[in-house]
Amino acid sequence: MGPCRKEKDPREGKEAVFLRRKITLTRAIALAVGTMVGSGIFISPKGVLQNSGNVGVSLLVWLACGILSLFGALSYADLGTSITKSGGHYIYILETLGPLPAFLRLWAEFVMIRPANMAVVSLAFGRYLIEPFFAPCLAPALAVKLITMTGITLVIVLNCWSVSWSANIQTVLTVLKMGTVGLVIVPGLMALGNGHYEHFQDSFDTSSLTLDKLPLAFYSGMFAYGGWFYINFVTEEIVNPKRNIPLAVMVSLVIVTICYILTNISYLAVLSPQEILSSEAVAMSFADKVFKSISSVIPILVALSCFGALNGGVFAASRMLFAAAREGQWPALFSMIHLERHTPLPALILMLPMIYLMVSIGDLYGLLNFYSFSRWFFIGLATLGLIIHRYQHPELPRPFKVPLFFPLVFTTACFFIVGTSLYSDPVNTSIGCAVTLSGLPVYYLVVQKTRIPDCCTSKFNAITVKLQILMKVALQEVQTY
């Protein structure tokens, strides 16, 4: 017996089960800005400065990461307006390069990329939220992890409850976090106006330049910009996607790039490079020096900013699991939608256990390098897929068409960063590669039909039906692409 569908009863006037188009242009921009401006700008300045070697190169890395992200985002806007399914990287690789690389992307996303990314952001949330209560001492690691797990659970529950609620909260938190970024930028620019240029002297001192570590600086910078692709995860829920996807990515990336460069200049106007490198939380060190009496407010604002990034990331990533299950590469249960809430409940719940595991591991910079290899390798594959797709399907309508120069530059940059990271951080990169390739036996034994005995299949279907009844979910009844 296969998973059952919801029977529509016209006498009861029940609505069909599908994901509604509730993401307006404003909400799409809030989703992109809100997931980019999360923990990255409050964590990554240390990683970028540490691995670029000097102040001048670190600022150039921030600008280069912004331009590269814009190239990638415009390429994804091209893909998103011609391939109209939700699912982001996964669906684009599936449609352009085939099922095996698409499944490996999905496997890496579920086992490593998404949990590690959520763990990095949620650990920053926990640390910034609880640190003021233990000042001047460091907060106990266990307390940080407990707050972190509470925060991520709350985000999952919110996304299970309502699409509109999570989208509205995302918009409010995005406005709040732009205010927080403003609280960093304004005092820093005022300090520059008062002549505090001392930390910018010898900005391009070549004696401290570390070219072999430069890819890791790009990892940290690209992590801070990570989030521009989340709009493409929810294509089927965006109002007028052909217009709003390109507009949203362009507006959001211009805003974020300007904010990031000004924020880093402000940090350096107040803090010395040594102070930034020795700080566990750069924004907190900045607040202690600038605001003094109200410095404890800044970490709470930063924590709320991280919460917004978590909310946007969970909202979008659950749609990848949903899309993969709909394509038959993941169990059918995860392509089901709650009958009343119209949210992908099973896909959301599935994300929790692996995030908890990554949080318990807990090293921010180790996690960052650990998952960055797979993330940028597969994003590079997706934009390479765009180039191949153009040549294979020249007849396909493309409402938003970018010059091939954009995906070419972005793909080259992704593969260059990934390749050189094997030299810069061979241990974490090799682990990331091994975890990704561990999906190969899963694909050939389980996904590529079918080497599972019939008795196991029938038991699995019976369990699926019971879980479906328990969670009140059903398969999508209206095609939305």
Main sheet, how many strands, which sense, barrel?
2 strands, antiparallel
Over the alpha carbons, how many angstroms does the gyration radius reach? 22 Å
Structural class: mainly alpha
Residues in helix, %: over 70%
- Listing every helix as H and every strand as E from the N terminus to the C terminus, the arrangement reads HHHHHHHHHHHHEHHHHHHE
Mean pLDDT across the residues is: 84
Strand order of the largest sheet: 1-2
Percent range for β-strand residues:
under 5%
The count of DSSP E runs of length 2 or more, i.e. the number of strands, is: 2
Uncertain parts: 1-13
Globally, the shape reads globular
* Count of separate DSSP helical elements: 18
Topology overview:
Layout: H1 25-36, H2 40-52, H3 55-82, H4 89-97, H5 99-134, H6 141-161, H7 163-193, H8 214-225, H9 241-270, H10 273-278, H11 282-290, H12 297-326, E1 336-338, H13 345-361, H14 364-392, H15 405-424, H16 426-437, H17 439-447, H18 454-471, E2 473-475
Antiparallel strand pairs: 1-2
Helix pairs in contact: 1-7, 1-9, 1-12, 2-3, 2-8, 3-8, 3-9, 3-14, 3-15, 4-5, 4-14, 5-6, 5-12, 5-13, 5-14, 5-16, 6-12, 6-13, 7-9, 7-12, 8-15, 14-15, 14-16, 15-16
